[in-house]
Amino acid sequence: MASTTAAVTEPRTYLEYKRFSAFHRWMHFLVFVSFTVLVFTGMPLKYKETHWAKWVMDAVGGVTAAGVYHRIAALVTVFYWTCEVLLMVYVVFRNRGRGVFAPGSIMPNKKDWADIKGMFRWFFGRGPKPQFDRFTYWEKFDFMSLVGGTVIIGLTGFIMWFPMTFTKVLPGVFINVALVIHSNEALLAAGVIFIFVHLFSAHLRPESWPIDKVIFTGSLPLEHYKEERPLEYARRVQEGTLGEVLVVRRITWRTRLTDVIWYGITAVAGLAAVLMTVFIVWSIFS
Ligand code: HEM
Fold it and tell me: Is the CB of 183 under 6 A from ligand 1?
């Protein structure tokens, strides 16, 4: 801790809270790229009768190319999902099942329900804003819906990808059922990620506007962390584990350059999400 204190007195050096490991940042990057590819190669099929579907299909290189990209992105999806689930199973085994619903866990617990109610009271000016630990209820919802939704969309996708194999054990009508489920689950997932939960909660909240780059850099300023996650901060101070999550961030030309890249990537992803939302809404109402 003494060397940390000395380091932060250097110019352009800050003490930050390390929120995500390199593993989780890479996993998020794979989700981010593969999900975008899946939406942009899948939605033009769902809305094939529209003008925009033709533009998007032409832009991605045609229907055959879109099918190949969709399948490659699907394999990336299987890869990151398997890595995350294996890690969760490993952590549960390592801790012998202890702490699965503890305050710092990603698993939902009773406090989340209290927080949801508290948040609604706060929206209507009838109570204070709830205080959060490591993960908020909307972050847990985001994570759980991705882990659970991937099972549904993945299974139905593989049924359509390998119809001959699946119809050896399932009646043929399952192919049609798989298409209906896949198609609607895709719409739900795009809605959750692009509009209702992820983009909104990650970037449009006053605390994180215009960009929350913690999933790219891994850490965020200590002051910001204390304000956003006061319960985790207090818990770590009490347990004496705060030092485990403190890192020194030096601002150099490289960190400035990577910050510009994160801003660029987030802006492009945000624009892509807005564009696809406009296309989908246009198809629904036209
Ligand atoms: C493991 C994951 C996935 C697999 C194996 C998979 C596979 C497939 C397959 C085989 C098709 C049929 C079209 C074709 O032959 O190219 C398809 C269609 C489609 N996929 Fe996926 N997919 C997966 C994930 C996703 C995700 C995450 C989304 C979007 C959020 C998505 C959106 C769509 C859409 C919108 C269609 C068109 C459905 C329609 O015609 O109504 N897919 N997918």
Answer: yes
Query: Do the domain assignments include residue 59?
Result: no
The rounded Å distance from CA 85 to ligand 1 centre is 22
Gap from CA of 157 to ligand 1 centroid (Å): 6
Is residue 245 in a domain? yes
Per DSSP, the residues of the chain read: -HHHHHHHTSTTEEEEEE---HHHHHHHHHHHHHHHHHHHHHHHHHTTTSHHHHHHHHHTT-HHHHHHHHHHHHHHHHHHHHHHHHHHHHHHHHTTTTTTTSTTSSS--HHHHHHHHHHHHHHTTSSPPPP--SS-HHHHHHHHHHHHHHHHHHHHHHHHHSHHHHTTTS-THHHHHHHHHHHHHHHHHHHIIIIITHHHHHHSSTTTTT--THHHHSEEEHHHHHHH-HHHHHHHHHHT-GGGGEEEEE--HHHHHHHHHHHHHHHHHHHHHHHHHHHHHHHHH-
In this structure, the residue with its CA closest to atom 13 of ligand 1 is 67
Report yes or no on 244 lying in a domain: yes
pTM, 2 dp: 0.90
The tally of domains found in the chain comes to: 1
* 7 part of a folded domain: yes
pLDDT digits (tens, 9 = 90+) for 90-139: 999 999 999 899 999 999 999 999 999 999 999 999 999 999 999 999 99
Residue whose CA is at the smallest distance from ligand 1 atom 39: 46
